[in-house]
């Protein structure tokens, strides 16, 4: 009898924990900036890493290999969005802001693109699939383990010939863009790396002459986690005309947005 009671308590406890983890906590945190990031980006990731003995990027890649069709970028994007909405949050630009990113890429129709922060290659695939033939697209990622996953995601989408993934820190690589990578200027730059690098890297791109009149900077996460120094600079500098696109932090209801800034020369 005692054993049976113990067994029922364990099953009940486990079920309660599962309901909390799967539904209650995500529902509560999705409206709160700090809690959403704390839960998804720190607690949930560490817990799942420990339990599954794998990393979030590895789990994301597995979802792509299981659910996406090889050579079909749209199905890769869908597989990642499904995984992140229903299984495990990840810091991709996401489906909602991704539509804004798509419309900017289509509008600019760039010949040269720089992405700062590849992570698992989600936004890289989104951008590359919309580029005109012959466009040069460089994406920078300084975490080699994540870059290895991104290469596999990009290859699964069949876009490896359209993307040059370079491993290293933006601050080291931006000054090498002209001589080492043969780029004169970028038509479009997507800033989505660590938020404290947006401003110094923008100033570095200016110093290195990588922006021309009409170049577009598109910056993610300007509200959450937020880039106050970058926004202050880009909105007040006479060298830019800037516009905010209101949206939500990927896969949540927390406000976030993209800042699109035209370099005026
Ligand atoms: C928010 S994630 C990028 C998400 C990706 N753009 C997407 O939407 O799928 C930020 C990535 O930038 C990388 N990163 C951060 N600072 C960097 C830097 N200074 N240079 C290169 N990569 C950086 C991180 O390792 C991380 O993988």
From TrEMBL:
Cofactor note (record): Binds 1 Mg(2+) ion per subunit.
The enzyme's E.C. designation: 2.1.1.6
BP term (GO), one: dopamine metabolic process
Binding site for Mg(2+): 192, 220-221
Name of a matching Pfam family: Methyltransf_3
Entry cofactors: Mg(2+)
Domain of life: Eukaryota
Binding site for S-adenosyl-L-methionine: 93, 123, 141, 192
Keywords from the UniProt entry: Catecholamine metabolism, Magnesium, Metal-binding, Methyltransferase, Neurotransmitter degradation, S-adenosyl-L-methionine, Transferase
Catalysed reactions, as listed in the record: a catechol + S-adenosyl-L-methionine = a guaiacol + S-adenosyl-L-homocysteine + H(+)
Recorded GO MF terms: catechol O-methyltransferase activity; magnesium ion binding
SUPFAM superfamilies to which the protein is assigned, alphabetical: S-adenosyl-L-methionine-dependent methyltransferases
PANTHER family: CATECHOL O-METHYLTRANSFERASE 1-RELATED (PTHR43836), CATECHOL O-METHYLTRANSFERASE B (PTHR43836:SF10)
Annotated family: Belongs to the class I-like SAM-binding methyltransferase superfamily. Cation-dependent O-methyltransferase family.
Protein name stated in the entry: Catechol O-methyltransferase
Provenance organism: Parambassis ranga (Indian glassy fish)
Gene giving rise to this polypeptide: comtb
């Amino acid at each position: 009898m005692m054993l049976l009671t113990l067994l029922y308590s364990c099953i009940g406890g486990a079920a309660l924990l599962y309901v909390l983890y799967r539904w209650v906590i995500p529902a509560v945190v999705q409206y709160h900036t700090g809690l959403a990031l704390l839960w998804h980006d720190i607690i949930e990731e560490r817990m799942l890493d420990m339990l599954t003995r794998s990393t979030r990027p590895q789990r994301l890649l597995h979802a792509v290999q299981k659910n996406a069709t090889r050579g079909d970028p749209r199905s890769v994007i869908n597989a990642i969005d499904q995984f992140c909405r229903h299984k495990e949050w990840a810091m991709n630009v996401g489906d909602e802001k991704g539509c804004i990113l798509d419309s900017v890429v289509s509008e600019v129709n760039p010949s040269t693109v720089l992405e700062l922060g590849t992570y698992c290659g989600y936004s890289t695939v989104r951008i590359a699939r919309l580029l005109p033939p012959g466009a040069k697209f460089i994406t920078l990622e300084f975490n080699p383990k994540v870059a290895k996953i991104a290469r596999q995601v990009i290859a699964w989408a069949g876009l490896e010939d359209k993307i040059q993934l370079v491993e290293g820190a933006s601050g080291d690589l931006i000054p090498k863009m002209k001589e080492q990578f043969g780029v004169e200027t970028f038509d479009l730059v997507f800033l989505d790396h660590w938020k404290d690098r947006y401003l110094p890297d923008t100033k570095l791109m200016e110093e290195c002459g990588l922006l021309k009149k009409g170049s577009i900077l598109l910056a993610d996460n300007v509200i959450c986690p937020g880039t106050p120094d970058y926004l202050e600079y880009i909105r007040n500098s006479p060298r830019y005309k800037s516009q905010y696109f209101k949206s939500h932090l990927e896969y949540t209801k927390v406000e976030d947005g993209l800042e699109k800034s035209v370099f005026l020369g």
